[in-house]
Amino acid sequence: MPNDTVQLLQLTDCHVFSNPSANLLGFPCDQSYLDILEFITPDITACHALLVTGDISQNYTTESYEFFFENISRFNKPVYVTAGNHDERNKLKHVAAQYPLIHLSGTMLGKWRLLPVNTAIPGKVHGEVGDLNALESALEKNHTETQNHILLTMHHPPVKCGSQWLDGINCRNADAFWEVVQSFPEVKLVVCGHIHQALDVVQHKVRVIATPSTCIQFLPQSDDFALDAPHPGARKITLLPDGHIATSVKRLTDKGYPQDASQKGY
């Protein structure tokens, strides 16, 4: 591969507690997060950076963010974080500031520019792109000055995933988002979380990917809330300098995590 190829790993929707006895629908989120980190340790060692696309905490506590950042920081890799609807932004920012390798802003990655897009609305499960003008200004600046390939990270996908209940709580101003984005051919990739399952589609010539949670999985193509097999995962992403993308999902399938599949929501 070319020398300026960028290797990334995405983690999303970890819902940690910093309490080993706590669980989400019977699922041990803290333990599965640690298990995923162990599972992908060789990939982290080889990567340039990690992406975290929201819902870090399940219980909104400072301790949950400390638990998350302490464990991911031990790999000594930069981590680029986008908040989700389950995150308490002030606590997230406060704890992240204590870790030099945790970043809440964008960066350059080889020939690519990473731009985080906030979709979290305080007190709401669904999302919206909060500042379309700022996004358009950043894309315009890149277009006129450098024309780097663009990777956008956001929690709520700006596309439908085929599950009625999830599509109702995704990015509600997706049409306005795409009206901005499709004017800038440099945008090549949107990396999302929120839906607790793998997704890989193309919208307006832009690839949109979402990734399995590191804890519970939602059953794809289900109109109502339902859990899938308890196989948490992460995603490898390769950004090539010519704008091409390679990606694959890695899952833990042999842990036999408990979960309460009878529940109708959380």
Can you lay out the helices and strands and say which pair or pack?
Elements: E1 6-11, H1 29-39, H2 41-46, E2 49-52, H3 62-73, E3 79-81, H4 89-96, E4 102-103, E5 107-109, E6 112-116, H5 132-145, E7 149-153, H6 164-167, H7 174-181, E8 187-192, E9 199-203, E10 206-210, E11 233-239, E12 245-251
Protein described:
- It contains seven helices and twelve strands.
- By secondary structure, it is of the alpha/beta class.
- It has one domain: Purple Acid Phosphatase, chain A, domain 2 (4-Layer Sandwich).
- It has a six-stranded mixed β-sheet with strand order 4-3-2-1-11-12. The protein has a six-stranded mixed β-sheet with strand order 5-6-7-8-10-9, covered by helices on one side.
- α3 (about 60-75) packs parallel to α4 and α5 runs parallel beside α7 (about 175-180).
- The protein is globular, with a radius of gyration of 17 Å.
- Give the strand tally: 12
Structural class based on helices, strands and sheet pairing: alpha/beta
Q: Approximately how much helix is present in the residues?
A: 10-25%
Main pleated-sheet profile? 6 strands, mixed
Global shape: globular
CATH superfamily: Metallo-dependent phosphatases
Features:
6-stranded mixed beta sheet, 7 helices, Purple Acid Phosphatase, chain A, domain 2, 22% strand, globular, 266 residues, alpha/beta
Short summary:
The protein contains 7 helices and 12 strands. By secondary structure, the protein is an alpha/beta fold.
